């Protein structure tokens, strides 16, 4: 019995669907990029006549809302969690700046409680975030 073997086979890679794959890959990358967004607490910023810009890298944001709720980088926290996280942060990167972002109508006692935690930890790289009143 004789088998018919064709030794000259031409291989072909279909390129018709390559544009579809590239488009789906682009959509996937765009969706993954949206996942890493910054959490913010809705507050009304206080005004300031002069403001100093700081770098956005290596910051810990402490948000204080109108009722005195404390949020670390957008996640709910209390004073004990704040103290623990800042102490760990200081051990790892002592030059990290703590940004205190408080609502304009937040009672000063609530802001002072956060400042007392920073004072006990002897943390000296602290900024208050305000809206420039230009």
In a nutshell, what does this entry contain?
The chain has helices at 18-35, 79-92, 108-120, and strands spanning 47-48, 59-64, 70-72, 75-77, 97-102, 126-128, 131-132.
Q: Could you please describe the fold and organization of this structure?
A:
There is one protein chain. The protein is of the alpha/beta class. It has a domain at 47-132: Nucleotidyltransferase, domain 5 (2-Layer Sandwich), CATH 3.30.420. The chain has three helices and seven strands, in the order H-E-E-E-E-H-E-H-E-E. Helix 3 links the parallel strand 5 and strand 6 (126-128). Helix 2 packs parallel to helix 3 (108-120). 10% of the residues are buried.
Layout of helices and strands:
Elements: H1 18-35, E1 47-48, E2 59-64, E3 70-72, E4 75-77, H2 79-92, E5 97-102, H3 108-120, E6 126-128, E7 131-132
Parallel strand pairs: 1-7, 2-5, 5-6
Antiparallel strand pairs: 2-3, 3-4
């Amino acid at each position: 019995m004789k088998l018919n073997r064709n030794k000259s086979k031409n291989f072909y890679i279909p390129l018709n669907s390559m544009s579809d794959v590239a488009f789906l890959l682009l959509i996937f990358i765009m969706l993954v990029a949206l996942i890493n967004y910054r959490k913010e607490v809705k507050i009304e910023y206080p005004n300031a006549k002069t403001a100093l810009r700081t770098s956005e890298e290596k910051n810990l944001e402490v948000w204080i809302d109108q009722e005195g709720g404390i949020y670390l980088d957008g996640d709910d926290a209390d004073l004990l969690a704040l103290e623990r996280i800042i102490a760990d942060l200081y051990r790892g990167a002592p030059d990290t700046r703590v940004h205190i972002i408080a609502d304009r109508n937040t009672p000063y006692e609530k802001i002072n409680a956060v400042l007392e935690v920073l004072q006990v930890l002897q943390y000296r790289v602290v900024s208050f975030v305000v809206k420039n009143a230009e």
